[in-house]
């Protein structure tokens, strides 16, 4: 490592350091800090945050992870605090059992319900998540939402925190870019309907076949929990229930897979792929 990079790293060995306590607390609670910052770990995750144009308050390296500073520091602004921690202290701060030795505090963007419509209500495709508890499933939903052109993700009550470290990792960076809002679901759905969105629920067993559903209009796609699905009072509010046909030998698809298939079909009907490819080519 070059001397200039070494000089940027401030060594901290005390577990009572204010910043270290804040990072540890953010990881443990799986929620944003009072300043709206998310604690993240891993080289790729930190790079995704930087690539997404988010502000980093601090980047922390372990002694054994110091070798990765040469890769990350050139990408980090000079105003970002950079710390070097003993391995034992770093390991006690992060949730993973085999950490890569890199963590950061990332300032997340805040969004309103209108932000989830992407400013163009005619193109709105909001994913409403109701009670999904598995972090891997929610991370997959966030990743697929971005991949297939959703304009935002609404998180209802009893849903795992989007800032859980496993959710962040499973989203592969999409959490930094897709508009995201946590709100009481019934009131949010009423607001979406008032804005002209159809409410469409996914079901494992009963409903119109997904391929026959019209998914080109402004739409809110509701995804329920892994076990119980959507609550009856929520299903009673929707305009249509759709089912993804599959082998009867399989009881149901998990929430992440079901949402991904439904989002793919919506993107196919909306010709999202053609638009995305043209934009990429430019």
Question: How is this structure best described in words?
Answer:
34% of the residues lie in helices and 19% in strands. With 282 residues, it is of the alpha/beta class. The chain has 2 domains: 3-107, Ribosomal protein L30/S12 (60s Ribosomal Protein L30, Chain: A, 2-Layer Sandwich), CATH 3.30.1330.30; 114-281, 3-Layer(aba) Sandwich (Alpha/beta knot). Strand 3, helix 4 and strand 4 (81-85) form a beta-alpha-beta unit. Helix 6 runs parallel beside helix 7 and helix 6 runs parallel beside helix 10. The longest helix is centred in the last third of the chain and has 15 residues, at 255-269.
What labels would you give this structure?
alpha/beta, 2 domains, 7-stranded parallel β-sheet, 5-stranded mixed β-sheet, 34% helix
Short précis:
By secondary structure, the chain is an alpha/beta fold.
Principal-axis shape equals elongated
Number of strands: 12
Per CATH, which architecture of the largest domain? Answer: 3-Layer(aba) Sandwich
Number of domains: 2
Q: Looking at CATH, which topology of the largest domain would you report? A: Alpha/beta knot
The CATH homologous superfamily of the largest domain is named SPOUT methyltransferase, trefoil knot domain
Strand content: 15-25%
Order of SSEs, N→C?
Answer: HEHEHEHEHEEHEHEHEEEHEHH
State the helix count.
11
Q: What profile does the largest beta sheet have?
A: 7 strands, parallel
Helix-strand category: alpha/beta
Instruction: Please write the CATH class name of the largest domain.
Output: Alpha Beta
The radius of gyration over CA amounts to 21 Å
**Distance from first to last alpha carbon:** 37 Å
Helical content band:
25-40%
In the sheet with the most strands, the strands line up as: 8-7-6-11-9-12-10
Report the mean per-residue pLDDT as an integer: 91
Low-confidence stretches: none
